[in-house]
Amino acid sequence: MPHRCALKFGAFLGRVLHLVLWKKVDRAEARCVRALGVGVSIAREIVRGSFVNLCVSAVEFVRLPVIEDRIEEFMSFSEESQAVLRSALARGKGVILMTTHMANWEYASARVIRAGFPLHSVYTPQRDARVERVIADIRENTEGMSMIDSDRGLKEIFRVLKAGGIVVIMQDLDARKDGVITDFLGLPASTHEGIVKLYRKFGCPVIPSHYVRVEGGRHSLEMRGILSDELDGEGRKFGEDIRGSLEMCNRVIEGWIRENPSQWFWIMDRWEYTLGK
């Protein structure tokens, strides 16, 4: 199927899924209303767009082996952003790319790899073994992409950072009982503290990695600076206070979501541990 037709098919699937999974849609809309402070009609449009983005991203992911050699056509990655990543790597302490479930994170990883930066991405295995196998096959066939199981990969993360490599961490997941309660979009949420703990142990620069979907099936990837070089709201260095540093991470992610709310994964319940369904 031609790429543009495939994207249209993905958008169609997203609209169908939005109709079929009406219970999940209702809960996602309620989250959106409460977190963004918008009306129900606006939340409905945001969540519908989120479902479309999810299914288009799934189609793009399946097609990744087909377009991998020309990923530059689909994901821009400016020289300025690449310079930020090079300067962080030059410190020799490894780098953490902090990212989130927006737009197409798989394309962003492939684009960074294509630019000459091998990645080691921390992921959570799928519950369905068949789905997990399909995803793993595509990732394994993407040159330079290495995956680290979040449940068993701590030693591998240590090894990569000690060697001066790059670890990618999704920072918008519900950490449940293992997390620190922080403010996220104005609501209490359990937040993973791994980024801050790794920074404390290795001094590895933390770079927010932001990607958005733009017109014509294209994407844009930006790395605007090193977050761990900044101070938190109380004037403390990154890592001095775990909650303060995590809220620095949250503020960055919140900004991304507010700029492009329909590209975030609203079906994922970020607040389930603290607020229930």
Could you describe the 3D structure shown?
The protein has 277 residues and is α/β, with parallel strands linked by helices. It is built from eleven helices and ten strands. The chain has a domain of 192 residues. The chain has a five-stranded parallel beta sheet with strand order 4-3-5-2-8, with helices on both faces. The protein has a three-stranded mixed beta sheet with strand order 1-10-9. Helix 1 packs across helix 3 and helix 2 packs across helix 3. The model has no long low-confidence stretch (mean pLDDT 92).
Q: Main traits of this protein?
A:
277 residues; 16% strand; three-stranded mixed sheet; alpha/beta; globular; five-stranded parallel sheet; 10 strands; single chain; 11 helices
Annotate the secondary structure layout.
Blueprint: H1 3-20, H2 22-36, H3 40-62, H4 64-67, E1 75-77, H5 79-89, E2 95-99, H6 105-114, E3 119-123, H7 129-140, E4 145-149, H8 154-162, E5 166-170, E6 180-184, E7 187-191, H9 194-202, E8 206-208, E9 210-213, E10 219-222, H10 242-259, H11 272-275
Parallel strand pairs: 1-10, 2-5, 2-8, 3-4, 3-5
Antiparallel strand pairs: 6-7, 9-10
Helix pairs in contact: 1-3, 2-3
Distance between the termini: 39 Å
What is the count of helical runs? Answer: 11
Helix/strand/pairing class, anyone? alpha/beta
What low-confidence regions span 5 or more consecutive residues with pLDDT below 50? none
Query: What number is the mean pLDDT?
Result: 92
Strand order of the largest sheet: 4-3-5-2-8
Q: What is the count of β-strands?
A: 10
Shape, principal axes of CA atoms: globular
Along the chain, the helix and strand elements come as HHHHEHEHEHEHEEEHEEEHH
Our Rg estimate from Cα atoms comes to: 18 Å
How would you sum up the major sheet?
5 strands, parallel
Q: Helix share of residues? A: 40-55%
